[in-house]
């Protein structure tokens, strides 16, 4: 890109960069509003704000979905619900810094799983990047001295694995092929909220949404609205706007800075103190995931020289489709509504 073209792209780049900052701070926001007794209630309340807007915006295309597409999206919604639950419980039991960085391992897990399914070999640079990232996670979780990782760290690791399962299922379910991506996202989120509601009704699963809402103070509502309005709706509409005005690859690259902002928010605002070993781990994770993204893209480039942008969720590019082309862009679980392929890595945002 020439200097002049880069200058013209910056007006679109800045809002996208703001989305990455918002996403990075979402782990801190989740910790601010959620306790171990209100995880499910907060998830219901958060997406009760989002779903009506998405449904109203894409109502015509939502009605055009076939029964098979609705069933397929519902199955994907069950996986999505697992991602949300693991992430949100995880962020309650670990630091915002650890949560944002550990979940970024999806960038490493997805190409590894894809290569196993396809029977292809990963490049040596990617394997080195993966090793660097894993070492970084070990140091990050042991920053205060070597001990067992916290339950929150393990839950976030499980969420990263669940995200990988979601993107692989999304790219291979023939029942959802050809469906409008925004409609698929709406159905998936609807299925997820149904799961959260049923779990809330079960005994011993914590507060119900109305009980939690009644106990919320002004700060709690502010955090909840921040997660709903900014981390979901704002992020979706900004990417939808920006991808038409700049390179989709630039959008993906800018959103990929999310782990950096998660670390900044956790350390600067939440007072996280990972220790010197943890700080080394932070640097290794950021370096490893960035290097791994580049190595994975370089491996896929010959198969799809004219492909659109890699999909992004939480700054994480998803696995390519069966034909070798990446899926359409995704923001917080919401793909570009103009995209016709149902590419959705995960909506997993705490």
Automatic annotation (TrEMBL):
Domain EamA, first and last residues per copy: 13-141, 151-289
Signal peptide as annotated in the record: none
Biased composition (Low complexity): 299-319
Regions that span the bilayer: 12-30, 36-56, 68-86, 92-113, 125-145, 151-169, 181-204, 224-243, 250-269, 275-292
Keywords on record: Cell membrane, Membrane, Transmembrane, Transmembrane helix
Compartment(s) where it occurs, according to its Swiss-Prot or TrEMBL record: Cell membrane
Segments of this protein annotated with the region Disordered: 299-350
Membrane-topology descriptor: Multi-pass membrane protein
UniProt entry tagged with the keyword Membrane: yes
Highest taxon in the source lineage: Bacteria
Family that this chain belongs to: Belongs to the EamA transporter family.
Protein name: DMT family transporter
Native source organism of the sequence: Streptomyces gobitricini
């Amino acid at each position: 890109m020439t200097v002049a073209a880069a200058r013209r792209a910056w007006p679109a780049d800045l809002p996208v960069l703001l989305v990455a900052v918002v996403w990075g701070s979402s782990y801190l926001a989740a910790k601010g509003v959620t306790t171990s007794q209100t995880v499910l209630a907060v998830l219901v309340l958060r997406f009760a704000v989002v779903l009506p807007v998405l449904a109203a915006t894409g109502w015509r295309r939502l009605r055009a979905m076939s029964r098979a597409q609705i069933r397929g999206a519902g199955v994907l919604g069950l996986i999505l619900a697992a991602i949300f639950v693991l992430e949100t419980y995880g962020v309650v039991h670990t630091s915002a810094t650890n949560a944002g960085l550990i979940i970024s391992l999806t960038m490493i897990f997805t190409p590894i799983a894809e290569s196993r399914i396809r029977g292809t070999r990963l490049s040596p640079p990617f394997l080195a990047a993966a090793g660097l990232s894993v070492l970084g996670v070990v140091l990050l979780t042991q920053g205060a001295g070597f001990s067992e990782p916290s339950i929150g760290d393990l839950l976030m690791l499980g969420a990263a694995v669940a995200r990988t399962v979601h993107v692989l299922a999304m790219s291979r379910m023939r029942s959802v092929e050809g469906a409008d991506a925004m409609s698929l996202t709406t159905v998936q989120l609807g299925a997820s909220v149904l799961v959260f509601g049923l779990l809330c009704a079960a005994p011993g699963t914590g507060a119900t949404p109305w009980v939690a809402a009644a106990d919320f103070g002004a700060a709690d509502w502010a955090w909840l609205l921040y997660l709903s309005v900014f981390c979901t709706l704002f992020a979706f509409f900004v990417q939808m706007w920006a991808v038409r005005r700049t390179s989709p690859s630039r959008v993906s690259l800018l959103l990929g800075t999310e782990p950096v902002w998660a670390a900044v928010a956790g350390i600067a605002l939440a007072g996280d103190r990972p220790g010197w070993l943890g700080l080394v781990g932070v640097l290794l994770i950021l370096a490893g995931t960035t290097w791994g993204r580049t190595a994975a893209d370089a491996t896929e480039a010959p198969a799809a020289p004219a492909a659109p942008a890699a999909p992004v969720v939480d700054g994480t590019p998803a696995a390519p489709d069966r034909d070798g082309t990446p899926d359409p862009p995704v923001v917080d679980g919401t793909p570009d509504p103009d995209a016709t392929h149902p590419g959705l890595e995960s909506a997993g945002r705490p």
